[in-house]
Amino acid sequence: MSLRLYNTLTLQVQPFAPDRDNTVRMYTCGPTVYDYAHIGNFRTFVFYDILRRWLQASGFGLNHVMNITDVDDKIIRNATAQGKSISDYSAIYTKAYFEDSALLRLQKPEHVTPATEHIPEMAAAIRKLGELGYTYEGEGSTYFRISKFPEYGKLSHINFSGNRAGARVDVDEYEKDDARDFVLWKAAKENEPYWDTVVGRGRPGWHIECSVMAIEYLGDTLDLHAGGVDLIFPHHENEIAQSESLTHHPFARFWVHSEFLLVDGQKMSKSLGNFHTLRDILDKGFSPESVRYLLASVPYRKALNFTFDGLKSAATAIDRMRNFALRLATEPFDEGQDAALDERAVQATAAFRESMDDDLNTAEALAATFEYVRDVNIAMDRGAFRTGNRERAQEVLNLFDSVFDVLSTGADSNSLADDKIDALIEERKQAKKSRNFSRADEIRALLADAGVILEDTKDGVRWKRK
Ligand code: AMP
Ligand code: ZN
User: Fold this and answer.
1) Nearest CA among 229, 196, 252, 354 for reference residue 301
2) From 8, 28, 38, 41, mutation site for ligand 1 pocket: most ligand atoms within 8 A of C-beta
3) What is the block-wise mean pLDDT of the chain (466 residues), using blocks of 10 residues?
4) Which of 122, 151, 225, 258 could form a disulfide with 300 if both were Cys (CB 3.0 to 4.6 A apart)?
5) How many whole angstroms separate alpha carbon 339 and alpha carbon 342?
6) What domains, with CATH codes, occur in the chain?
7) Which residue from 8, 36, 44 has its CB within 8 A of the most atoms of ligand 1, so it is best to mutate?
8) Which of 332, 323, 290, 292 is nearest to 416 (CA)?
């Protein structure tokens, strides 16, 4: 079986493949850079990363675009309070976002697109929507008229008919004809930053940035659009309304949404004050890998309750895997090959793949890996595991780490003691002598992961730490 994903649009788990040339055209809603992101935000960003990695493991190419919302009410408010320009202010948190992302080993999307670098394109799109009759103006601002888009609600599966005077659904402080209508362009207010454009002086609303940048980089129809569940309505519903009104093509084939990180049953959020930033957690002595592991360990469609005990368990789980990896690499097993153990590895790999293919069931994939590690540790203890079993065992680990990426220790390059390094170098020498070059290369890679660099000199091998 191949990859299946839950599509919010159809409310079904469906087989996923890109529409054209084996490349997934994918858009994810990125951070609003008004402050440090908290680990609730990072649950969503880790989910994007796991999705990326499994799409790659499925053999697809990626063209992934993620926006940076670097103009909005909170940014303007905070920048003004600090006497900074919005670009100086948002640069601080954009940088922090990428530092945290690197610590969490998030792959960078192929295109990261700051909203403020695409304002003329947004204004042009708003003008075109106006020409097509989808907008109206009031006091210099431009709104999208939802009643012109009968399919509104098809993503959130909310029936809006007869709901004109419903509750306020948007946070914008502007006059609207219909509560559901949303602002495309905000007229400049005093002391606020603005751009002079074909739709006047002002700044774009939030929703339009995603539609415009997605279409600009990826074309009219995306293969996949992702975000947190809180974005389904109104943000993604509005993106669909704008985009499909502009292009008359379906905006995205798959809509994939991740659930929240909770604290005591409530969404982790700035407004509730129940949040932790990555920096806070690292200051308490936890590793970024533990945070990554914890956030990735629960399937994305299940809410995940954050606790420090959970973080400790994540650290323990990583230790178990690292110990196993070290044992596999360094223990002097007897010669030969045990067919049943190779078979066990093949089965573990298949179970991992099947779990990930099943709507990215990371919990099952982890269970398959840990059951395998337990069985093989026992086999090693009783001497059944042989040198010939290393390769398949390493494949299980590599597959696990291609998704979870927690085995290498990053900055912690002192984890291998000097005598262990010497022993590995000696083993590498023997491996080369017996023309087992793949093992020799494996040892070099293992040492490199631990921050140890080898130099082959005429007097033998020298090593140093990075
Ligand atoms: P923002 O920076 O506020 O635009 O949010 C960035 C992303 O974080 C959005 O995709 C939200 O869906 C997501 N998000 C916010 N809070 C949480 C949470 N507690 N758990 C998971 N994702 C969240
Ligand atoms: Zn968006």
Assistant:
1) 229
2) 41
3) 96 98 98 98 98 98 98 97 97 98 98 98 98 96 97 93 50 69 96 96 98 98 98 98 98 98 97 97 96 98 98 98 97 97 98 98 98 98 98 98 94 64 86 84 79 81 82
4) 258
5) 5
6) 4-258 (3.40.50.620), 279-404 (1.10.730.10), 418-465 (no CATH)
7) 44
8) 323
